[in-house]
Amino acid sequence: MKRALNFNAGPAAIPLPALERARDELLDFNGSGMSIMEHSHRGKDYESVHREAIALLRRLLGVSDAYEVLFLTGGASQQFAQVPMNFLGPGRSADYVITGGWSEKAFEEAQRVGAARVACTTKRDGTFTRVPTQDEVSIDPSAAYVHVTSNNTLYGTQWHWDLDPKGRPLVSDMSSDFLWKPFDVSRYDFIYAGAQKNLGPSGVLIALVKKSFLAEARADIPVIFRYATHAKNDSLYNTPPTFAIYMVRNVLAWLEGIGGLPAIEARNREKASLLYGALDRNEGFYRCPVERASRSTMNVVWRLASEALEDRFVAEAKTHGMIGLKGHRSVGGLRASIYNAVDVATVKALADFVDEFAKKNG
Amino acid sequence: MKRALNFNAGPAAIPLPALERARDELLDFNGSGMSIMEHSHRGKDYESVHREAIALLRRLLGVSDAYEVLFLTGGASQQFAQVPMNFLGPGRSADYVITGGWSEKAFEEAQRVGAARVACTTKRDGTFTRVPTQDEVSIDPSAAYVHVTSNNTLYGTQWHWDLDPKGRPLVSDMSSDFLWKPFDVSRYDFIYAGAQKNLGPSGVLIALVKKSFLAEARADIPVIFRYATHAKNDSLYNTPPTFAIYMVRNVLAWLEGIGGLPAIEARNREKASLLYGALDRNEGFYRCPVERASRSTMNVVWRLASEALEDRFVAEAKTHGMIGLKGHRSVGGLRASIYNAVDVATVKALADFVDEFAKKNG
After folding, report:
1. CATH architecture of the domain covering A17-257
2. Of A20, A48, A350, B51, which is most buried, counting CB atoms within 10 Å of its CB?
3. Among residues of chain B, what percentage have pLDDT more than 70?
4. Strand B190-194 versus strand B170-173 pairing type
């Protein structure tokens, strides 16, 4: 079997060892004569997977006891509503930093729950080409929290510095770059990340919540939407998406095995450098719309002179086994998502093709 | 590999052919060189799975175009809140028929969203041993909807007749017996069922919503919680739990292959008859707390003279490869969940053991 060179934006590539492990024990987990999918979420086999996934995450990131680690469902889109439901009480307002389509959705959903305010937007002429500087962000000194989106899959921008929220709680949607490198969790009060980029399949979301922030959450919303419910019950209040969590465990175990976050950061920087390098070498033929200081290491976007040429790029790349290179339907152009599971050789093949295609058509 | 005799209450047994299919193509779906988990939810490979799952469900149940078929997340527990968020506007009240622990939770959650009222409860002395008769249910003529729970996993009761909601919309949580037999969907306005009993793994929920009822839903709640959002976008508004839906497809394809709902109903009735038959033959040694007319075909519960004897039953059954027989932690006793994927031979083995154990210890 030949593996595709998978540049999908999410659901996306999953490390082969994590998939092979799943395949090998799909019918018989740990000698139980059952698939992990058939195990009770209250049984010791599944519980050991559940706890191992949490322990791996804590070890990889150095998450202290000041934080709860939660498995939730509904993806980031549900968190867009659930965060304000928990933390945006009557009479309060929350600050949103708008750096792309997902931050816009988060802001719009917050407005349906309570009062929300734009602390900064980098939108110009209907598009986003960068993240802001600290000076551009005006933070309401009484904001319930400040919300940022760490990486923007649609526009290919990424924060390469941490916002100072001026003493307000900092909430970050890290769905598309969580675990791409080590970072200081203690700067954040609430972090959430859908699994389908760097963590595993779709169907589960990981949240880290500072206990002191959780203590401020509302208790007058439905039980199922309270983060406190899931924290108190170790994410076993109701039946969790057991197989998706099992896959996250497999991916995190692979990540630890290859050397953890320092190792994956080195790989990710090498990959980004290979691909941006090829695009920059052929500047003029290709155009990267994102400002250099805001370039994403996860989602690389670029344009060609015409949509016809972009379509030809996608079609020819496909004959080389490369898939997922079409930009998001809302922005067009080309995009290569090079998440943790995409290896250096795969990105090297794309970078070579980028050179070749420019030579042939430039 | 010896398969366990799996009587788990959920997550529960999955048909072997559905699991084998997943294993065989786990690394390479449809010759794509990628796992189905790695495919984009906007790509044609995944979309064909998504649409096939919906089409299979429509065919198996005979669901008309008057209904939307939705894939949602968060399990039944999230629906306990989401149903009233959508259908219980200010100034309205909803009626709940309480027949077990899950209906109680649904009712309590509804009260956190709006006004809810008990139309009937069959709770006596802290427990439930039956579903009500039509006469016992007093329906508010202006109720926003009437909510029932078709089968009660904890107490082993099941409705064997359809409630007449007296012209009010009828909402049913069918999580634990959906698709156990053919039924008339048109009697219901909203049906929901978590997958982890009869449909596949945990992590996805199927909902059927009558379009005329959907038209009454509130539009002033967060977008992600509006059923209309998911209906309008074919359950692809945000990233769905693709692998869980793929497994549901595999299970529904298996169900169609064995003859659909009439065939599974015959099997389910045979299984229930085998197990209740063995318990009844040894009445006195075993005690079934549920009234005969309310006995569940999915979850069979019984008691022995002492907890020590119950523990021994579980332990000895385990030596025969039978697992999942302990009752729910909130009620104790014994419970065998014999969902669609549990075959007749497996239940026959348990029924034989029930006889044997009574003979040896009676």
Report:
1. 3-Layer(aba) Sandwich (3.40)
2. A350
3. 100
4. parallel
Of A6, A32, A34, the CB nearest to B34: A6
Query: How far B79 CA lies from chain A's nearest CA (Å)?
Result: 9
What's A260-361's CATH class?
alpha beta
A222 contacts B112? CB cut-off 8 A: yes
Inter-chain CB proximity B242 and A109 less than 8 Å: no
Which position among B102, B159, B180, B254 bears the catalytic label?
Answer: B102
* ipTM value: 0.98
Domain ranges of chain A: 17-257, 260-361
The per-residue pLDDT for range A219-234, each reduced to its tens digit, is 999 999 999 999 999 9
Neighbouring CB atoms inside 10 A of A2's CB total 8
- Concatenating the DSSP letter of every residue in B211-232 gives HHHHTTS-SSS-GGG-HHHHHH
**Domain B16-257, CATH class in plain words:** alpha beta
Query: Could you give the CA distance from residue A8 to residue A179 in angstroms, rounded to a whole number?
Result: 18
For residue B126, what are the contacts with CB-CB under 8 A and spacing of at least 6? none
Query: Mind listing the pLDDT tens digit for each residue in A3-61?
Result: 999 999 999 999 999 999 999 999 999 999 999 999 999 999 999 999 999 999 999 99
Residue A196's contacts (CB-CB under 8 Å, 6 or more residues apart) are A10, A11, A12, A75, A202, A203, B239
Q: For A130-182, what is each residue's pLDDT tens digit?
A: 999 999 999 999 999 999 999 999 999 999 999 999 999 999 999 999 999 99
| The token pair that represents B107 in the structure block | 């009712």
Q: Say how far apart CA B164 and CA B133 lie, in whole Å.
A: 10
Distance of CA B158 to the CA centre of its chain: 11
The shortest C-alpha distance from B284 to chain A (Å) reads: 31
Dihedral of CA atoms B324, B327, B328, B330 in degrees, nearest 10, equals -160
Q: Which tokens go with A3?
A: 């593996």
**Contact at CB, A244 and B241, closer than 8 angstroms:** yes
The pLDDT-based confidence of A329 (bands split at 50, 70, 90) is: confident
Per the residue annotation, which of B177, B189, B197, B210 is the catalytic one? Answer: B197
Q: Are B222 and A109 in contact (CB under 8 A)?
A: yes
Cα–Cα distance list, A243 to A204, B13, B243 (Å): 9, 14, 9
pLDDT at A328 over 90: no
Within 10 Å of residue B121's Cβ, how many Cβ atoms?
18
Smallest Cα–Cα separation from B174: which of B344, B122, B184, B165?
B184
Cβ neighbors of A215 (< 8 A, separation 6 or more) are: none
**Interstrand relation of B93-98 and B146-149 (parallel, antiparallel or unpaired):** parallel
Q: Quickly state the pLDDT bin for A190 (edges 50, 70, 90).
A: very high
Measure the CA–CA gap between B129 and B121, rounded to whole angstroms.
11
- The C-alpha of B19 sits at a distance from chain A's nearest C-alpha, in angstroms, of 7
**Which positions in chain A touch B349 (Cβ < 8 Å)?**
none
* Contact between B202 and A239 using a beta-carbon 8 Å cutoff: yes
β-strand partners of A91: none
Q: Tell me whether residue B102 is one of the annotated catalytic residues.
A: yes
Residue B12 has pLDDT above 70, yes or no: yes
**Distance, CA of A209 to CA of A230 (rounded, Å):** 11
